[in-house]
Amino acid sequence: MKKKKYIPLKDRDRRREVILKAMLSFYSLENIDGELHKGDVYSLPSNNISLIDYVNSYCHQIRYFFNTGKRYKKEGLYDEYYKNGQLNIEPYPYDGTLPLGGKEIDQRVLVDYYKQFYKDNKNSDSALEKLTKDVITLLSFEEFFIYLDSLGLNLEEENWYEKYLDEFFERYPEYTKIIQKFIIAAIYDSDLRFTVSNRKNKLKITWYIDQEFIFSNSDYERKEAVEVLFDSGLLMADLGEFHNKSAPKVIDQSLIWDGKLDFTSWNEEEVPKVCDAWRKGIFGKVTIKRGIKYISLDWDYPKSFRPYDLQEIRQNCRYRFNDVIEYEYYSHEQDDYIFRMIINGHGL
């Protein structure tokens, strides 16, 4: 049996603090700009992966996990080779993709279990803490290990992650509660609940989505996606189409594709005009209501607007809303629909 290397108590205490600081950096958006660790050498990874990349990746994976029932197992992230008769394992350089690469694994059974566990235990603080630990361990442990390795921290003790994670939760409850709320919001949003009605030339859409948008504080994020859909009116493309001859003048022909409204193709000149007209009531009276867990739209649409049948509207909304709830820290170099819609809504 290999004898464990003895580490003096003073060095162990120091390393313990470094690991806990690393957890705080890794699991909290509060540290992205490095303010809590400014000047601390241990907050500067050596593998060209910035801290924001790690945080972005695990946040995205949590929402992706609950929304799709799939997760990424980190395979191929290490280069194994023998040198002087010893096996060496080194992480590959980060390739710039989110989430950090790996093999996609179907885990819908586990997702269903977590969702039911939350519903059965949502009033138990200890159960919610267990759920939070289980989820972040499943979805971020491998990346956290890579992060520690980049800081030059090699851990050989048994069950080190569980031990430090428990202490992290005890020491920093103000941060772990935010992670817990983020996971709960991801579970809530993944149910994809919404209602649609059309009565007396009034369309009403109510979408049950968490309105705190925890960890959604990038420039082009879920919050901005919901705003351009509801507050700026771009959801109307999923609700119906305008009669060409009687459509408001602001509906430029460049916004029509195959007879339907198109706000997701690049058009930063015309789409903002539509958003402005929507807010001014040119398309009819609009009432937007928000609660902590929902947003609703009441729209008295004009005679020139022809709504789709309710089944088609529900299908369109399901596709659109599904894209939004999963929209957590994408690499915006990707040319995706939600990103283009947000940029179009903001204008030049």
Overview of the molecule:
It is a single chain. Helices cover 44% and strands 16% of the residues. It is α+β, with helices and mostly antiparallel strands. The protein has a four-stranded antiparallel beta sheet with strand order 5-6-11-10. Residues 32-43, 76-83 and 91-96 have low confidence and may be disordered.
Mind sketching the topology for me?
Blueprint: H1 9-27, H2 51-68, E1 70-73, E2 78-83, E3 86-91, E4 103-106, H3 108-121, H4 125-150, H5 160-171, H6 173-190, E5 193-199, E6 202-208, H7 222-230, E7 240-242, E8 256-257, E9 260-261, H8 271-280, E10 286-291, E11 294-300, E12 305-307, H9 310-325, H10 337-346
Antiparallel strand pairs: 1-4, 2-3, 5-6, 6-11, 7-12, 8-9, 10-11
Helix pairs in contact: 1-5, 2-4, 2-6, 3-4, 4-6
Beta-strand content: 15-25%
Placed side by side, the strands forming the largest sheet appear as 5-6-11-10
| Rg on CA atoms, Å | 24 Å
Q: Strand-and-helix sequence, N→C?
A: HHEEEEHHHHEEHEEEHEEEHH
What overall form do the CA principal axes indicate? elongated
Largest sheet, strands/sense/barrel = 4 strands, antiparallel
Number of strands: 12
Uncertain stretches: 32-43, 76-83, 91-96
* Class based on secondary structure composition and strand pairing: alpha+beta
Q: Given the structure, what is the number of helices?
A: 10
Helix content: 40-55%
Averaged pLDDT? 82
First-residue to last-residue Cα separation = 66 Å
Short description:
The protein is α+β, with helices and mostly antiparallel strands.
